[in-house]
UniProtKB/TrEMBL annotation, chains A, B:
It comes from Methanobrevibacter gottschalkii DSM 11977. Residues 189-326 form the MoaB/Mog domain. This is Molybdopterin molybdochelatase. It comes from the Archaea. Pathway: Cofactor biosynthesis; molybdopterin biosynthesis.
């Protein structure tokens, strides 16, 4: 009892311990995936260009590839005439060479033939019978993108931590990358607990309710960039909890259990963790959600959330979402996901514990949602929550508050 | 030539035509998916509660289920004594009944036994030898959540268009929903065109470049909520384009082609569309990206983007992303995805065409990215683009502009 009491933590302390456990026990890992399947993933490495781009001097317009000096002085009034010795489409090559008095007709995107310096656009040329009249003077390199002018080989083009959006995917593809190293999604197993819960699709006998936490916390973890799996339901007895967690540890880096009464799973999970590993937090001084357990087994995290779905999601959002998102390599500023507004009604809060008050945001109006903490339907209307510090007994109507938004 | 000229559209007109084609030719469709796999999907139907929640009168605390009047007058000084006739865990039921002078020990989450009205918390009771001393007076319904108090059967709980976040998924699970109707992702096929392009993994012979648009536009469509597939490369000849598009139409609702020189694919695609369907737009008065084609075959959309990847992505973002996102059921306010700031350098713009200028955003500083339009590496640094209206020749340093952000 004494030890357990010592493991009840204030919110700030709990936040710090959990972040530290994530940092010390769990490694950011990488995996190689196809670039074409990489939308939304996070680069695990700096990426350098493998080749000059464009990889050759490239015509930027449809026209005639010439020696620049062959056009000097040309105008509509006094055109210069050249022999057209070949036609070069994009993707094609020629062994003919551009020399004084000769040119090659060329398409946008084609590699400039040997000798040629400039392109005279088709709009400034008149072609007939194997000859062309140039109607304008071209500067050297006009309408030519020089080899490596966009990027040279060996340059840093993307950085570790970059979010792979379509543009960055395009950059990788242009360099011929078929695969790329991205952050591996942390593997997370979710287990629900409690004699009263049934799975959807099973009949619901009297006294039972459907399991919510399994599917909900799994999806909350997915929203943080994890590869999360629901591993089913266990009963709150020592052997079953030990067996289920030992099994889950073979697959997952992080296990999140929830449910049972606060006395039930909490105590059993605590004992199992003490046998197999170490308990770091047993209770957080917060309402709702006090019965939260954080432990470590073989450098993997085992988290016990309250069974009440509203409390479980609040604790997940307030304490687990940020370190999990960081572990997934996502550089998200959680501080930015807040909005400010004014309370539309007064709320009372228990002194001595941090309270998380669910609210609905309507412009600058912050409406508190009053429901007992088991009221799952508050989750369909809540936009986020307000933190009421443990020393504050009352938030008055009209008081300015900061809302931590869900998602 | 006359007809084609008529089909060159100003930006606003093109936006309107494309939205109208999406609205008229393509239907928002639904599919049934597992609730546990539904994170990020969009509800296709209003959802009503299937049952009262809680589905029974539920104990909110561990304690003793009693008739309220049996506790009236009880205090620490003068406890009231009752017989404990049973113990009820969450999920269990009993056929015993609470009557005057009798109570049932009960766990949080258990269904209240017949006859019982209130729960006296275990903290306010002393149990010994089949009896309990109540140390406090309970009001009727104290620490009991009444059947249906959270939500009654038949109430609207979620709305068509709702984004399925973890909380809303929790609400669906609590009602026993195994599956749910969500917006079906529009099926989109992406085809690249051009003799000069090679696939990643193939060797790159002289004069060739890697295909960028296939993987990039596919992922841009995925970012808009589509189920997008890259269907490979075609050459710019009539038979191959006709064959490839006819094939793709069997699977996809929308086909996006790109590539070839502006004269190449544009003309071929135009002819194929005129044979099999109808061309609505052939050219948009915008830089970059003029050679854009929008047509319809059998109520499916066929879109031809410029081959230049920067132009292709710009046209996609400026004209296709918004109607595609709406088709996917996503209620996104594209106007919100803008930021304002000041140009850090002067830019010139061609008169007579809308120009999209790529920029990098650094706080309130908007840096124009100067590169020829073939410069794919601008896509790794660009945050978005500024629209320079066709009548404007110059945006001066320090001028305030609005940036349309990528993603």
């Amino acid at each position: 009892m004494g030890t357990e009491f010592l493991k009840i933590k204030e919110c700030d302390e709990a936040t710090e311990i959990i972040q530290k456990l994530f940092d010390e026990k769990l490694n950011q890992q990488s995996e190689e995936i196809l670039v074409t399947e990489s939308y939304g993933r996070i680069l695990f490495e700096d990426v350098y260009s493998k080749m000059d781009f464009p990889p050759f001097d490239k015509a930027l317009k449809d026209g005639f590839a010439i020696l620049a000096e062959d056009s000097f002085g040309a105008s509509e009034e006094s055109p210069k005439t050249l022999d057209v010795i070949d036609f070069l489409e994009a993707g094609a090559t020629t062994d003919k060479k551009v020399e004084k008095g000769k040119c090659i007709e060329i398409s946008t995107g084609a590699a400039m033939p040997e000798g040629a310096e400039s392109v005279v656009m088709v709009e400034y040329a008149e072609k007939s019978d194997g000859k062309v009249n140039l109607l304008t003077t071209a500067t050297p390199t006009q309408d030519v993108a020089r080899k490596g002018s966009d990027i040279e080989e060996g340059k840093l083009i993307l950085k570790k931590g970059d979010f792979l959006n379509p543009g960055k995917i395009g950059v990788l593809l242009s360099q011929g990358f078929e695969t790329i190293e991205v952050y591996k999604k942390p593997i997370l197993g979710v287990i629900s607990s409690g004699n009263e819960i049934s799975l959807q699709g099973e009949g619901l006998t009297y006294g039972k309710i459907y399991d919510v936490n399994g599917g909900m916390i799994k999806n909350a973890a997915i929203s943080c960039g994890a590869d999360a799996h629901f591993l089913g339901i266990m009963r709150d007895n020592y052997d079953e909890v030990k067996h289920k967690i030992t099994d889950a540890l073979k697959e997952a880096d992080i296990i999140i259990c929830s449910g049972g009464t606060s006395a039930g799973l909490g105590d059993v999970l605590n004992s199992v963790l003490e046998e197999l590993g170490e308990v770091y937090i047993h209770g957080i001084s917060v309402q709702p959600g006090k019965p939260t357990i954080i432990g470590v087994i073989e450098d993997k995290l085992v988290i016990g959330l309250p069974g009440n779905p509203v409390s479980a999601l609040m604790i997940f959002n307030a304490f687990i979402a940020e370190p999990l998102t960081k572990l997934a390599g996502i550089d998200k500023d959680f501080e930015l996901d807040t909005v400010k507004g004014k309370m539309t009604r007064r709320i009372h809060s228990p002194v001595g514990r941090m309270q998380y008050q669910l609210v609905k945001v309507d412009g600058k109006d912050i409406h508190p949602i009053f429901k007992d903490s088991g009221a799952i339907f508050s989750l369909s209307t809540a936009d986020g929550y307000v933190k009421v510090p443990k020393s504050v007994e009352l938030l008055d109507e009209g008081e300015e508050v900061e809302v931590y938004l869900f998602n």
